[in-house]
């Protein structure tokens, strides 16, 4: 039975437009609704609610801050603001090249029934190289010889290179060989050398070995951490891992000479333990050609350590490398996987491979005019 109009007005007095304009609900039980309305229209109760909400929010923020403070602090700086746009353009360029890549026999460094090693071009993804291998293997077969029908090879990437890094890539032709060779890389039984063109202040050392931590920061970016932080937890559930690299200077501003990679291994006692931030604020006036001997295989390891030493790789915008140098724009970083040495996963024979050097390495031994 409908209530008389005066009784309705007594139960539900007009609500100030400050809180509801127009009303956001309809009344189904006046006796219960009146209590709700009185609660909502009571400024004291609203203040209590706001205080409780603010307290809960502050408590959550304090907890998050405490959790972040428990993580180790990276020693290397965050990515430069300009790197995001430049990296995106480079990624789009590499994707557009994927359908155009066609490796030839001149790109093959080594080939047998178990694996093939090629000289990867700069600015190409590893997956693009892998997808071009079947065509390469078919074209390398002499068409005048009768072709034996066999099962297609089970191709795998035994090692990976960054998109803009050129040089030696190993592709295995069976699951079994892939497992053995990948384990050899993981266990650091493969000896590797790289060559890089860096821009910075000429180093005061001819040869240096350093060991640091390596991991992703809270923004998912690879950073250098202190050696003493190895094993500590990082945001996302990962932890700081160790990385060690030996560097030697080959030339500075065109002055120097090319020398063969050293076969001596770095002793643990020779390693400089990284505990402080790297070289910063130096003038980038010198061209420094270096060779790197990574003792571990962390993502972007050489690039990060070059940045830490104050000689970032030319074109490496992600890690503070110049992308414009002496009137020229560099669309990729200049890092080359020069050599690999390992025991053959099937025969056990020692395999030593060298990739042809890119043009910029030869130019590094010519003094600038």
UniProtKB/TrEMBL annotation:
It comes from the Eukaryota. It holds the Pfam family PseudoU_synth_2. Gene3D superfamilies: Pseudouridine synthase. One of its GO terms (molecular function) is pseudouridine synthase activity. Residues 115-308 form the Pseudouridine synthase RsuA/RluA-like domain. One of its GO terms (biological process) is enzyme-directed rRNA pseudouridine synthesis. CDD domains: PseudoU_synth_RluA_like. InterPro entries: PsdUridine_synth_cat_dom_sf, PsdUridine_synth_RluA-like_CS, PsdUridine_synth_RsuA/RluA, RluA_PseudoU_synthase. It catalyses: a uridine in RNA = a pseudouridine in RNA. SUPFAM superfamilies: Pseudouridine synthase. PANTHER family: MITOCHONDRIAL RNA PSEUDOURIDINE SYNTHASE, RNA PSEUDOURIDINE SYNTHASE 1. This is Pseudouridine synthase. It comes from Macleaya cordata (Five-seeded plume-poppy).
